[in-house]
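TASK: fixed-backbone design
INPUT:
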């Protein structure tokens, strides 16, 4: 479709350009993956009869009762399997109703997800304190501007004090956020005033994460809260503790200690592993140990050690969110997303794999047995049976990081030539769009501002903004296309329709593999979005970081409201969120805090609530009257895209900016003159 044709139509663009990065998948594996590199390794692993999650998902038949959220296992009288509309089966032994069971299960997902991000955030707060007390060798405060800004926001004295003293107070205040029993989380004040008032009316502003998670686990137990609407208030309060305390503390303090991201270029896909180099793959979520490994890996000492064992050098690449953390801060390459964690070892050239916490699957231990890969765990909270554990804490992380790198280099000589199976596929990717950088890039150093973004939304060059985040899996492939395709095609359709896309988590990695994180991706964008991208010098898809960095999106949305002109509250903005192949409880916690922020949140595949018509009506329809946001669920990415675009248009209509805008074709000179 020509630009002219696009511009002559106010309707949706369904035909999108392709950068020619679609992979040639090994025949027979098209139903599993749309990535050639993954399929090549998988084929070899299958030939060698090495079981991976990709194979196991074919033989595992999900329990339909559990999938619908109607298996109640909160006590020993059951577990009760409830079936809607079937007398004698529609209540549990204790008399519990289906909607209560579904709400409890949903609440437990949120409690688990919040606990994950919160425990992560708490670790970072404790690291901050250790740094300030000089008890964390190797770590230092890298972003003093952000430190001072946060200290000021929290009323911490700056005058005449050292960075370490200020950092100590920031760390202690952050730590207290987790155990506060009363009051409101400190970051809540960042939200728009109208939203805060709404939250107060709803009674969902979090006190402290520990209290909210404990209270939710209490209220979801048998014999407790039997009004699902009342229970959902605590579900919301807990999810809010995830976004506005746990995740935001993690993001803010990691930026202070490790540096605030700015765009850096790296590469994505299995081809980042170099056959002639020692390859260390890191995986998980908490970046503290990896930071020190990356720093050490760049020293001449490590280069010399790698050469001494016959390698050309030392190479690091990541999986999952620890990878995203390193990509957005240092441009370190990403080998793959969640679904690639076993496959990566099938290249036969991973000399070491180091995992920290979250999304580390137990299958790794078994796969590692078939290769020379030295698999190592580092967190006392996440050990794997039969896998070597190198316990790290703040005081010994530097020394352990070096020991790990040295161990991996030593393991290079144990490669089995018969199992070496490298691939070449990789794509360049630009990542590191922190809130601070987006503001700077839009407005410049001296007038950093979201004004140009709001203006572009008002004049229709940008139709809206979408966050596309979350997991990828090998599991939903067989039904409605592969997991990768759902992420990639959704993003392509959104940008083709002039929607600016912000990404985090494994979804960003999948987009990176498809070439969507490059400036060249603007070729696939609609003309309005492309004119902005060209003027600002960015691509249409912005990689903002790891899952905890969804907190950056919370702050960015607040800034859009603060900047003015497109509504006084988040639920007035033409924005939407999506998780095209969610998998973890963390995703549900994230989704809920965005719904409570007033955002339309689309999940694929269905949420575990389909067993109750009443509960579904509540969260998919009625809840919009309560928070202004709502959940939506889809089987197909096409329907998901349509739902998001329709929601964005609904908000534009309400703002009075959805009329026929005067559309003009921009030549280069006009683009240069654009006020961005
Ligand atoms: S790592 S939670 S698979 S995004 Fe954050 Fe990826 Fe989902 Fe884990």
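OUTPUT:
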């Amino acid at each position: 479709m020509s630009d002219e044709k696009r511009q002559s139509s106010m309707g949706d663009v369904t035909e999108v350009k392709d950068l020619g990065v679609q992979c040639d998948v090994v025949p027979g594996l098209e139903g599993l993956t749309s990535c050639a590199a993954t399929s090549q390794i998988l084929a070899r692993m299958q030939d060698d009869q090495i079981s991976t999650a990709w194979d196991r998902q074919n033989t595992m038949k999900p329990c339909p009762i559990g999938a619908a959220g109607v298996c109640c296992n909160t006590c020993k009288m059951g577990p009760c399997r409830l079936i809607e509309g079937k007398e004698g089966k529609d209540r549990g032994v204790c008399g519990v109703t289906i909607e209560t069971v579904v709400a409890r299960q949903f609440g437990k997902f949120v409690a688990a997800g919040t606990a994950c991000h919160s425990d992560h955030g708490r670790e970072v707060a404790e690291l901050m304190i250790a740094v300030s007390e000089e008890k964390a060798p190797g770590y230092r405060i890298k972003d003093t501007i952000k430190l001072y800004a946060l200290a000021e926001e929290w009323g911490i004295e700056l005058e005449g004090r050292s960075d370490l003293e200020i950092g100590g107070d920031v760390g202690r205040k952050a730590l207290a956020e987790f155990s506060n029993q009363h009051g409101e989380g400190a970051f809540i004040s960042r939200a728009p005033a109208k939203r805060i008032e709404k939250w107060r009316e709803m009674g969902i502003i979090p006190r402290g994460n520990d209290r909210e998670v404990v209270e939710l686990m209490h209220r979801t137990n048998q014999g407790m809260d039997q009004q699902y609407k009342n229970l959902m208030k605590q579900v919301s309060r807990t999810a809010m503790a995830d976004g506005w305390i746990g995740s935001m503390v993690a993001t803010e303090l990691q930026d202070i200690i490790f540096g605030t991201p700015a765009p850096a270029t790296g590469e994505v896909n299995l081809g980042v592993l170099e056959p002639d180099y020692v390859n260390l793959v890191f995986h998980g979520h908490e970046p503290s140990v990896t930071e020190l490994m990356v720093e050490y890996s760049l020293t001449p000492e490590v280069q010399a050690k790698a050469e001494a064992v016959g390698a050309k050098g030392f190479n690091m690449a990541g999986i999952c969110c620890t990878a995203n953390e390193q990509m957005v801060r240092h441009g370190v390459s990403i080998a793959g997303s969640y679904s690639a964690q076993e496959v990566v070892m099938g290249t036969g050239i991973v000399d070491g794999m180091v995992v920290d916490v979250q999304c580390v699957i137990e299958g790794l231990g078994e796969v590692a047995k078939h290769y020379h890969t030295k698999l190592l765990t580092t967190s006392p909270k996440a050990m794997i049976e039969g896998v070597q554990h190198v316990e790290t804490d703040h005081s010994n992380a530097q020394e352990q990081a070096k020991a790990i790198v040295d161990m991996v280099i030593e393991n290079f000589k144990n490669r089995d030539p018969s199992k070496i199976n490298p691939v070449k596929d990789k794509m360049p990717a630009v990542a590191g769009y922190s809130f601070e950088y987006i503001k700077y890039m839009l407005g410049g150093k001296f007038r950093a501002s979201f004004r140009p973004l709001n203006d572009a939304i008002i004049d229709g060059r940008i139709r809206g903004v979408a966050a596309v985040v979350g997991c990828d899996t090998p599991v939903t492939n067989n039904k409605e296309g592969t997991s990768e395709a759902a992420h990639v095609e959704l993003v392509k359709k959104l940008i083709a329709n002039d929607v600016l896309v912000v990404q985090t988590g494994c979804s960003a990695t999948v987009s990176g593999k498809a070439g969507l994180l490059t400036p060249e991706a603007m070729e696939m964008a609609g003309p309005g979005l492309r004119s902005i991208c060209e003027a600002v010098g960015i691509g249409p898809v912005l990689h903002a970081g790891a899952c905890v960095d969804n907190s950056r999106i919370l702050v960015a949305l607040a800034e859009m409201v603060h900047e003015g002109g497109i509504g006084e509250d988040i639920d007035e903005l033409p924005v939407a969120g999506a998780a095209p192949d969610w998998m973890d409880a963390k995703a549900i916690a994230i989704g809920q805090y965005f719904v409570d922020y007033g955002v339309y949140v689309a999940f694929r595949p269905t949420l575990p609530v389909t067993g109750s018509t009443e509960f579904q009506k509540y969260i998919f329809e009625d809840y919009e009257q309560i928070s202004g946001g709502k959940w939506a669920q889809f089987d197909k990415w096409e329907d998901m895209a349509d739902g998001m675009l329709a929601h964005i248009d609904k908000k534009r209509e309400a703002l009075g900016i959805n009329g026929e805008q005067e559309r003009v074709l921009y030549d280069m000179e006009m683009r240069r003159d654009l006020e961005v």
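COMMENT: The first helix runs from residue 3 to 8.
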